[in-house]
Amino acid sequence: MYVAVKGGERAIDNAHQLLASRRRGDTAVAELGVEQIRQQLPLAVARVMSEGSLYDEELAALAIKQAAGDLMEAIFLLRAYRTTLPRFGASEPLDTTQMQLERRISATFKDLPGGQLLGPTFDYTHRLLDFTLLAEGEYPAPETTLADEPKPCPRVLDFLAGEGLMVREQDDGAPVPDITREPLAFPANRAERLQALARGDEGFLLALGYSTQRGYGRNHPFAGEIRIGDVEVWMTPAELGFAVPLGDIEITECEMVNQFVGESAEQAQFTRGYGLAFGYAERKAMGMALVDRALRAGEYGEEVQGPAQEEEFVLMHCDNVEAAGFVSHLKLPHYVDFQAELELIRKLRRQAPAEENR
Amino acid sequence: MNASTASGAREASAYNFAYLDEQTKRMIRRGLLKAVAIPGYQVPFGGREMPLPYGWGTGGMQVTAAILGRDDVLKVIDQGADDTTNAVSIRRFFARTAGVATTERTRDASVIQTRHRIPETPLVAGQIMVYQVPIPEPLRFIEPSESETRTMHALEDYGVMHVKLYEDIATFGHIATAYAYPVTVDKRYVMDPSPIPKFDNPKLDMSPALMLFGAGREKSLYAVPPFTQVVSLDFEDHPFAVQQWDECCAFCGSSESFLDELIVDDAGSKRYVCSDTDYCRQRTERLEENQQ
């Protein structure tokens, strides 16, 4: 009796086999390789690495394959693996002025040192289905010329800061917390906020960023600079005492120029919101930058008018592994609590007529 | 609670005993010690991602992983039953990652991880109950902000909770909370006993067993040490009372256990059976023995 819930071990085993078969699809079609996913679905890999907070293209591609293309499930797989890894230490801060740029745009200046570099982008594609992709075939490789030695490229917001027009970010030298090791306490500091946002769900941050544009906590953003490319990661191992390079990672960085603040007209300065994501992940970095700026309302004495400005609301709900888990747990049996509610509602209804007759 | 180190005769596995690494387990045990020292107080802890989804018992699993030793005997229940899918899944997880003995008998278990029930069989000294907790903050649905509720606990400012219960009485004539019914622990902290039916609340009071609560997503631990006073909130003229059924269990005939309602045909006929499958089986076996 009541087999619907009390399936037990056999049901679980069978479910796993059915899942494997669904993932594989028609066996007459060649199996998708992890390397194919890594090479040909790089934007999916980037999202899984960012929100899974682990930079490993191969494992991210594996997770996507294992999750049958469900990116949130893939993010979860990568997180659950990451949490078992030992922590060696923290890297030196990334120096993104030394980035090997693949794309770099600024909406705030027509031209600027380092130039505008469109790079591979969907931005100006017409969203027409390309039916030639239905047939497999050669694709015309772009004509590229090998770049000269990569040159350092200054950041747009640093020009503004140099002129005193942009609030400079101060490093208070405090140790950087790790929200994957220590529980988040409120109010959080900016380092913790940025960590949470970097792991946060792209769709959630996009929607919150959008809400600030529509008036729920406006902050007048301009895309000061978006840059995408490879940057070197350096680390100082305790036993060496000097920094050594660990390798390159691809990142997307977004700096928003936002509404000014200041005690008086002479002291008015622009403010900034910051977004950073692994891989090519422009939408995520922009959403993050908008929300980062919105969460600085307290710091700049602004009135909190929208959910994007409420720290606890944003940080407690931006993690899609937490959100997906808690929503999906509604699928678990709740019949004991429901029985308790049934008993209560019947009791309330039984006595209701009596009271009405009083 | 003998903490064991990895290696030994364990099968070749990429993971440590009971999945979590020893440093993480120590961190959780430190949190648990603090929780036991301040009964009912919510201790924040660096909750880890587990290989099961948040909301499916990750808090309880981290507590179990942290306290489990090789000689422990583990029982896992969900809705009071050992054979519900999630209970099976979690029991398998520890059988696989820790290789500990598992049981369905409440008496034989040294650690019992549970979701939504406390066993009907009285617990004894030395046993540890581990509760899976979705929302550890009893004040959460009155005050959504964590910074606010922490202050309210610090000031023992629980007036709003009584106001909420009073409003229930004014609207419905009864306190309209049937599960996750708030309790006061050791005359100090108001605590969420996890979503157990209020039927189980009296079992927490002066229990000889240690009660540990783990909330994974909310990254919080709390505890009720053995022989601690746990009082369900109520009013003098509306005293706390537990659920009662007119029926008794269709299998074992118990009129004292928490009953699940089953709809058995298309006409909506109902039957009632014990939610605690172990308790029900023990009773059924005893009945059969007596008949022979």
Describe this structure as you would to a colleague.
With 358 residues, chain A is of the alpha+beta class. Chain A has 3 domains: 8-82; 96-318, no CATH class; 321-358, no CATH class. Chain A has helices at residues 8-24, 34-40, 42-51, 57-66, 71-82, 156-162, 190-199, 202-213, 282-294, 311-317, 320-328, 335-356, and strands at residues 100-105, 222-235, 244-261, 269-278. The termini of chain B are far apart. Chain B is an alpha/beta fold and 292 residues long. Chain B has 2 domains: 22-141 and 178-232, Bacterial phosphonate metabolism protein PhnH (Rossmann fold); 244-292. Chain B is built from 7 helices and 12 strands. In chain B, the strands form 3 sheets. Chain B has a 7-stranded mixed beta sheet. Chain B has helices at residues 22-37, 58-67, 85-97, 146-154, 159-172, 201-204, 277-291, and strands spanning 43-44, 73-78, 101-102, 111-115, 128-132, 183-185, 189-191, 210-215, 220-224, 230-232, 259-263, 270-274. Helix content of chain B is 28%, strand content 17%. At the A-B interface, α1, α5, α11 and α12 of A face α3 and β11 of B.
- Tell me the overall shape of chain B: globular
Largest sheet of chain A: 4 strands, antiparallel
Oligomer classification: heterodimer
**Series of H and E elements of chain A:** HHHHHEHHHEEEHHHH
What is the arithmetic mean of pLDDT of chain A? 90
Please provide a brief summary of the model.
The complex is a heterodimer of chains A (358) and B (292). Chain A is an alpha+beta fold and 358 residues long.
Task: Chart the SSEs and their pairings.
The complex is a heterodimer of chains A (358) and B (292).
Chain A: H1 8-24, H2 34-40, H3 42-51, H4 57-66, H5 71-82, E1 100-105, H6 156-162, H7 190-199, H8 202-213, E2 222-235, E3 244-261, E4 269-278, H9 282-294, H10 311-317, H11 320-328, H12 335-356
Antiparallel strand pairs in A: 1-2, 2-3, 3-4
Helix pairs in contact in A: 2-4, 3-4, 3-5, 4-5, 7-9, 8-9
Chain B: H1 22-37, E1 43-44, H2 58-67, E2 73-78, H3 85-97, E3 101-102, E4 111-115, E5 128-132, H4 146-154, H5 159-172, E6 183-185, E7 189-191, H6 201-204, E8 210-215, E9 220-224, E10 230-232, E11 259-263, E12 270-274, H7 277-291
Parallel strand pairs in B: 2-3, 2-4, 4-5, 5-8
Antiparallel strand pairs in B: 1-9, 6-7, 6-10, 8-9, 11-12
Helix pairs in contact in B: 1-2
